Amino acid sequence: MSELTYATSLYYKHSGRLDAGRFAFALAGGMTCAIAGATAFAYIEVYMPIIYGTFLLILGFGCALGWMNARLMKWARVRNLQVVGTSGFLIGFAALYWAWIIWFYAYIQRFVPPAGNPLAVVTPLKLLLHPVGMWMFLKLFYTVGPWTVFKDLHPTGIFLAFLWLLEAGVILGCAAAIPVRKIREIPFCENCRTWGQTRQILRTKVAPNAEIRQNMEQKKFEYLQTLGPPDDPDHWTHFSLQGCSACDTTQTLTVDRFQITYDPKTKKPKTSSKSILRHLRLTPEETVQVCTVAALVSAPISPTEPAKVVNVEVDSLGATQVPPEAS
Predict the structure, then answer these.
(1) Sheet holding 251-262: strands in order across?
(2) Domain tally, the chain
(3) pLDDT for 76-112, tens place per residue?
(4) Which of 7, 64, 276, 287 fits a disulfide with 251 by CB distance 3.0 to 4.6 angstroms?
(5) Last residue of a domain, one of 184, 213, 240
(6) pTM
């Protein structure tokens, strides 16, 4: 039985554990992939004909680093958000530093004539082993500026430093924040040593958020029957289970409100959601109860028909089945 499932807190929290061997391998692999990606990123940035595309390139590179680290941390079974964020920051920093090295090298190769120029002997390895040389290049570009934007604007000094800091912030922020957000959203079963799955169980009418939250936290799942199925196809409350698909020791309930709005001109639909509660812990008995009630709400009795008995089958994992009506 998972020691996380029956702790005093109402809501699931990660245990803070990790698999050391897998984590070390994931961190090394992440660094390798980040350096390879940084090399391509730097060359594209130097040779990109449209300077404004650089901003999209930076954002895309940062998101790619974050996505990669999230996948690696999930594979490594890291259940410690501080470790996830720190590893993302380290991978992002390694990628950023190497991208600057390659950028300086590629810039020299493209714009500085090699004949009789002492900079022609500069290599990425020399820049890596001599941080002082990197600092000298930074001061040089800080003074003269490497490129022009908006036709007549030549960023130098404080403005250029601001752009560099903005680039670093985007890359480091995405590399650290994206995996933390991804890992936070997935419960982990310590019993089966596997990440949880999401199962959609019910849609109901909209009700006040505080009312839903209070009843769910008090485990009054019969309250769902008072809500009934949604009466507006564009506005509903969504209930889902997130937990282990192999056992019932780690199960959680998540509730969100969804609404579809339409653009007044194009009539194009846009779906928005708002969280009501996330990862409310459930015991095995409570999982069966909420699934049973959800099945009853999903198969309502028409007021014009006589009441009939609905047989609800619930297995040990909380899966529900409503058998077809006998002919």
Answers:
(1) 197-204, 235-243, 251-262, 269-282
(2) 2
(3) 999 999 999 999 999 999 999 999 999 888 887 776 6
(4) 287
(5) 184
(6) 0.77
